[in-house]
Amino acid sequence: MRATIFVTLKADVLDPQGKAIQRAAASLGYRDVAQVRQGKLFEVTLDAPDRAAAERLLREMGEKLLSNPVIEDYRIDRIEDAKPTAR
Questions:
Q1: Could you tell me the domains of the chain?
Q2: Which of 5, 8, 22, 83 could form a disulfide with 42 if both were Cys (CB 3.0 to 4.6 A apart)?
Q3: DSSP 66-77
Q4: Quick check: pTM over 0.85?
């Protein structure tokens, strides 16, 4: 199975990198960009026996490994069966 997990700063946490991107966008002429929040994207391939086991593992990884729960939120965006590779 393959999954996508997004990790972002909580809404009330300042995002200096996002602010720098927003200022850079304005300096490049993209004046309509009002705000940017940055985050991280993880693509994870699992050998889980079923979807429920995959979801449990991904939630545990999101809470303990991929995010800092004090300042970040995570969401499991998608879980899909891995497509077999052609040989």
A1: 2-80 (3.30.1280.10)
A2: 5
A3: I--TTTEEEEEE
A4: no
The DSSP string of 38-56 is -EEEEEEE---SSHHHHHH
Which residues, at least 6 apart from 8, have a Cβ–Cβ distance to it below 8 Å? 37, 38, 39, 40, 72, 73, 74
Tokens read off for 6: 């997004």
Three-state secondary structure call for residue 18: helix
Distances (CA, A) of 59 to 52, 54, 64, 66, 75: 11, 9, 9, 10, 9
* Degrees to nearest 5, angle at CA 60 with 15 and 18: 10
Q: Pairing relation of β-strands 72-80 and 39-45?
A: unpaired
* Mean pLDDT of the region 54-80: 95
